Amino acid sequence: MLRYIFGKLLYLVPTFLGITIVAFGMIRLLPGDPVIMLAGERGVTPERHAELLAMLGMDKPIWEQYFIYVWNLLHGDFGISFSSKESVLTEFFARFPATLELGLCAMIIAVIVGIPVGVFAAIKRGSWFDQVSMTGALVGYSMPIFWWGLLLIMLFSVFLNLTPVSGRIDLLYFFDTPTGFMLIDSWLSGEKGAFASAVSHLILPSVVLSTIPLAVIARQTRSAMLEVLNEDYVRTARAKGLSPWRVIGLHTLRNALIPVVTTIGLQVSVIITGAVLTENIFSWPGIGKWMVDAVWRRDYFVIQGGLILICVNVMIVNLLVDVLYALINPRIRYS
Amino acid sequence: MFNANPAAANQRVEDRSILLEFWHYFKQNKGAVLGLAVFVLIVLTALFADFIAPFHYDVTLSELRKLPPAFQSGGDARFWLGTDAIGRDILSRLIYGARYSLFIGLVVVIISMILGVIFGLISGFLGGPVDTLIMRVMDIILSIPSILLALTIIAILQQGIFSAIVAIAVIYQPHFVRLTRAAVLAEKNREYVIASRLAGAGRLRLMIKTILPNCMAPIIVQGTLSFSNAILDIAALGFLGQGVQPPNPEWGTMLAEAREFITSAWWIVTFPGLAILITVLAINLVGDGLRDALDPKMKRS
Question: For residue B26, is it within any domain?
Fold first, then answer.
């Protein structure tokens, strides 16, 4: 098992280097004068120009620049945001918990709703439940979630006045945020109503963000179940006279879930893409909003650093999924 | 009719029978047929927008701002779906907007499919270091979340339709590379390919004339999937203000302008998104039908 994990880790090294080349190349591909594009200073004297160029590290040969860049990355130096003058890494970690909280909640909703729906749709194949849920899944899968978010805001926030429109918590609450997770921090703060406020802020964004993964997981679970239900060993289990729940829970579901785990892993990238949109609709102060704001401001070091940090996170999650997959499926481990 | 070339005639009969067989399986899926009908309708609307749309998308009637849809009280029968914040007919803008989504989606699919198939053929056929290099690059592209990659590419190339097309095509192309490569690897050592090679077929001929036609089914299915995803992505980029720029009536861009009216004018927010959903849903239904009809495993013959 350790050898398997080590092999997977080794495999990540070239991918990581590739992403650093993309991020490094991105800045060099910018048209125009780097001093204007990156430092934002126009009409400077040649001396100041040379000074800025040296500050950006762009006065050296390109391969040397790349090695310095990767060296700095490995030491946690992702550059300085050109609008806030803060380190990109600091900015990233200030916002990362917000996105993680939102993404985890969305993923939990998608899994605890998606898998049962898929299982029941497969067991009751052709029933009205199957048809309604699979039509729903197809609609969810085709959903432009930024519009879906606006619709839900119109319905629940504007029309029914049930949930807040934006942010993570009402502005009247002030407390320390040691973990960065609003649900935990508001609980720890002990302030009355703070936790309820955090929950009510989290509901709509999580539902919106869970829409596409939920649809994909439900569809995938259903087709995996259908495949397994036709297997000989399931027929044997039934013929032995086991109760239907035992057949489904023990003999079918366990095998059907193997491909579903891979699907869930693939949804991480979908969640991040979705978070970019969801955070924008709900003014959720996470990395998705941070990145889009950086694109608006053309804050290239934030875009560059953020891209790498997000990709590293995706790579780590994918590694965890691979390990989990090998744990539940011995055929992978020993091949 | 007398035909001078019996071989070509046979070929034509064979092509027709394949199409008929395909249609036989495709039409069993009612959802797919419905999706196809809706899709054809949307394509026709986009093509003949100049004749169908009641107004040009730029016509601004500033005295008729935020008019509700015709079926709601206070609506005007001339504006079926109402008018937007500066008095433009929403229905007309949606009709013209279909052009953006369909055109960009189509161009993206064509570019990413052609590039992906070329790289996939090379990768699967040559193998070795070339294969490793191509697949590694594709792995890198796939490991970057799609919208972030698109936003980055747009930040470099500057906003606009061209940047958006390039960005989305880059994102989708690895899927085609992987599919083509897998199909080539599966077909490469089959007897008909070896026979063709022994008969003296060159590499290019083997790749394009012998192997490629037998790998087309999964590529076509992936094509429809990419088409619907591209429409969603272009709308998402428009919504974030980085895609098609206003006043062009792209659906996502219209939604971005509509955001501030969620408290006052539901129709400005609702209809552009509904247009996106219906289009994407129709294409996905067709995609499901194509997959069932083209996948020999699913055929119950």
Answer: no
Report whether pLDDT(B189) > 90. no
- Whether residue B151 lies within 8 A of chain A, CB to CB, comes out as yes
pLDDT at position B297 over 60: no
Asked if A120 and A252 touch (Cβ cutoff 8 Å), the reply is no
B287: nearest CA in chain A? A138
**Percent of chain B, pLDDT > 70?**
94
Q: Select, from the ranges B24-33, B73-82, B269-278, the one with the highest average predicted confidence (pLDDT).
A: B269-278
Tell me whether residues B144 and A19 touch, CB distance under 8 A: yes
Residue A126, φ and ψ in degrees, nearest 5: 85, -10
In the structure, what pLDDT confidence band is assigned to residue B301 with cuts at 50, 70 and 90?
very low
CATH number of A95-334: 1.10.3720.10
The packing angle between helices A194-229 and A128-141, to 10°, is 120
Q: Do A146 and B145 touch (CB under 8 A)?
A: no
| CB-CB under 8 Å, A295 with B242 | yes
Does B4 score more than 60 pLDDT?
Answer: no
From CA A162, how far away is CA A206, in angstroms rounded? 15
Across A4-21, average pLDDT: 86
- Is the CB of residue B171 less than 8 Å from the CB of residue B141? yes
Instruction: Please indicate, yes or no, if residue B6 is contained in any of the structural domains.
Output: no
At which residue do the structure tokens 């608006």 appear?
Answer: A296
Q: Return d(Cα A132, Cα A116) in angstroms, integer.
A: 14
Instruction: Name the CA dihedral angle for A225, A230, A234, A235, rounded to a multiple of 10 degrees.
Output: 150
* Residue A116 in this model has a pLDDT that exceeds 60: yes
Contact between residue A49 and residue A36 where contact means Cβ atoms under 8 Å apart: no
Residue type present at position A326? A
- Burial label for B264, CB within 10 Å (0-12, 13-18, 19+), is exposed
C-beta of residue B229 within 8 angstroms of C-beta of residue B172: yes
- Residue A131 reports pLDDT greater than 90: yes
Shortest CA gap A196–chain B (Å): 24
CATH number at residue B206: 1.10.3720.10
**Separation in Å, CA A56 to CA A34, A42, A67, A80, A305:** 9, 15, 14, 10, 15
* Closest-CA residue to A204 (of A270, A261, A155): A155
Amino acid at A4: Y
pLDDT for residue B150 is more than 70: yes
Contact A295/B at CB under 8 A: yes
Residue A200 is given by DSSP the state: H
- Whether B30 is in a domain gets the answer no
Is the Cβ–Cβ distance between A157 and A164 less than 8 Å? yes
Ramachandran sector of residue B162 (left: φ over 0; alpha: ψ -120 to 50; beta: rest): alpha
What contacts A116, CB < 8 A, 6 or more positions away?
Answer: none
Domain range for B285: 37-294
User: Rounded mean pLDDT of chain B?
Assistant: 86
Q: Residue B10: pLDDT above 80?
A: no
Q: Say what the pLDDT of residue A194 is.
A: 83
Question: For chain A, what are the domain ranges?
Answer: 2-74, 95-334
Whether residue A273 and residue B228 make contact (CB cut-off 8 A), yes or no, is no
